[in-house]
Design goal:
Elements: H1 3-34, H2 37-57, H3 61-74, H4 78-105, H5 107-114, H6 116-142, H7 145-168, H8 173-199, H9 210-246, H10 248-264, H11 266-281, H12 286-310, H13 312-316, H14 327-335, H15 337-353, H16 356-381, H17 383-407, H18 414-433, H19 438-455, H20 461-468, H21 473-490
Helix pairs in contact: 1-7, 1-10, 1-11, 2-4, 2-6, 2-8, 2-9, 2-10, 3-4, 3-6, 3-9, 3-11, 4-6, 4-9, 5-6, 6-8, 7-8, 9-10, 9-16, 9-17, 10-14, 10-17, 11-12, 11-15, 12-14, 12-15, 12-18, 12-19, 14-17, 15-16, 15-17, 16-17, 18-19, 20-21
């Protein structure tokens, strides 16, 4: 597998995440402007609840199956890949059945707050979303992520139009659930067709027994299931806790801030999502490859994150004037971007090595403190307390990941990270104190950060080629020539 294949796979995945994020922001902006923060809060709590159950019901299969499919697709062993795909769907069927039974049994707790119809609608959302997540992982493992981009774009646009129609008809919270269900439903149909197209390339009978693949996949999936489920609970429970303790309006403010921070962090999941199958199939150079993934994440994320931190009020008020109250939680959440990128990079590397115990330690180290802090800080500080809990939990998980990185012999170049952090942080602070217009301040902060990165060779010629060659040649070549021309003028060593 070449770096170009991985890079282009990550590029399509990142564009898919960005397009979904933009449409998602449009979704919440429309909802926040046409309804009240209370409706946003209740809707977001249901979405957070569904996200938690999806993570539990999937039993770690989305990540576990990638560990095997990445290598099988590279070796063109499509007949063996088909066996693991069948095993993955059997495992999530068990998870979905168990989750549904648990939800129905505990109905007296959930139905009293949300109502029977909304909970049933959420159950349908959970089922189709879980299937969609597994199909998504299969396509990512094949690196055919252009297909994922197409499917996601189609389904997201349909979701937005469907939601506008439902909201105009007076269907509020139920309209949100129906629109959110439409996305994974359409995506699943499109990705199922793509998956069948890929697996049809098998030309011989498999030598792998179904029971063996089931046992192997179960072991790998369960290893990631606990930390991933705990991490998801730790992240999503904040909105539900704010709803229960502070009310639906505060939950709406926090959820919007949380969605913005997660949208910005999409590059982490895009890069590491495509990197993981590659790392799992590599025999040598995994640590270097993992560091380059972390570096790319930081180079893309830090200038944008710091710029938004200093213009957080303006960004939040895009959703409505009253949403400026969520600016402080947004700032606190964005602080977690740096440790999150490093922590997740180390976590993916350890999982690729098969060190399941270390993966669990990192997951628990970040999530358990979050859950405990939610109980303490949310009653006092509301959404700000939830953001503090999330970021402090990330910091603790980050420290645990650094301890593990030393054990596996991965060196972290802290000088580079310090420079990549200080430059955009200083520029964003400067432009905000000069009271520049938010759009101008954010744009200048990002552009100048990259120019300084080139000047200090934090981004070198090889980086530029690696980053831009993932684009189509007609776009990549002129961009590379332009960047090379600028870089040579500001750095003679380039």
């Amino acid at each position: 597998m070449s770096k170009l294949q991985v890079g282009r796979g990550a590029a399509y995945l990142y564009v898919e995440n960005i397009s979904s994020m933009i449409i998602g922001y449009a979704f919440w902006i429309i909802l926040s402007r046409m309804t009240t923060p209370e409706i946003v809060g209740i809707s977001s709590a249901l979405i957070s609840f569904a996200t938690i159950i999806i993570s539990v019901a999937a039993i770690g299969v989305p990540l576990g199956v990638q560990r095997f499919l990445g290598k099988l697709f590279i070796e063109k062993r499509f007949e063996d890949a088909a066996v693991f795909v069948k095993s993955s769907f059997l495992i999530i069927s068990l998870g979905l059945t168990a989750s549904t039974i648990i939800i129905l049994v505990s109905s007296y707790l959930i139905f009293d707050y949300f109502g029977f119809v909304l909970v049933v609608a959420s159950l349908i959302l959970i089922v189709v979303s879980t299937v969609s997540v597994v199909l998504r992982s299969i396509i990512i493992a094949s690196l055919k992520t252009k297909r994922l981009l197409i499917a996601s774009t189609i389904s997201s646009v349909i979701k937005l139009f469907l939601f506008i129609i439902l909201l105009s008809s007076g269907i509020e919270v139920m309209g949100v659930i129906i629109a959110f269900t439409a996305t994974p439903l359409i995506t699943s149909a499109l990705l199922a067709f793509d998956m069948r197209t890929i697996l049809r390339q098998a030309h011989k009978r498999t030598l792998i027994r179904f029971s063996d693949s089931l046992r192997t996949l179960w072991k790998a999936s369960v290893a990631s299931w606990i930390p991933l489920s705990v991490e998801t609970i730790g992240a999503q429970l904040g909105t539900i806790a704010v709803l229960g303790i502070q009310g639906s309006a505060q939950a709406g403010f926090y959820f919007v801030a949380f969605q913005i921070s997660m949208g910005i962090s999409a590059v982490i999941w895009a890069l590491e999502g495509t990197t993981y199958p590659a790392l799992s199939s590599m025999e040598d150079g995994r640590k270097r490859f993992a560091w380059r993934t972390i570096k790319v994440s930081l180079i893309i994320l830090l200038p944008l994150s710091f710029a938004i931190i200093f213009y957080s009020v303006d960004v939040m008020q895009l959703f409505g004037y009253g949403y400026g109250e969520g600016s402080l939680p947004l700032k606190i959440l964005l602080i977690s971007v740096l440790p999150n990128a490093i922590m997740n990079g180390i976590g993916i590397l350890t999982y690729a090595y098969g060190n399941y115990k270390h993966v669990l330690i990192i997951g628990l180290a970040s999530t358990v403190p979050r859950l405990l802090l939610y109980l303490v800080l949310i009653p006092w500080f509301g959404g700000t307390g939830a953001a503090l809990s999330y970021t402090l939990g990330t910091a603790i998980g980050f420290i645990a990941s650094l301890v593990i990185s030393k054990r596996i012999g991965m060196l972290i170049p802290w000088k580079e990270i310090a420079l990549m952090t200080a430059i955009p942080l200083g520029l964003a602070y400067l432009f905000s104190t000069l009271n520049l217009h938010p759009l101008l301040g954010i744009t200048l902060s990002i552009i100048i950060s990259y120019l300084v990165y080139l000047k200090l060779t934090l981004i070198d010629k090889k980086d530029v080629q690696d980053y831009l060659n993932i684009l189509p040649a007609k776009i990549a070549n002129p961009l590379i020539r332009m960047v090379d021309s600028v870089a040579r003028k500001i750095n003679k060593m380039y």
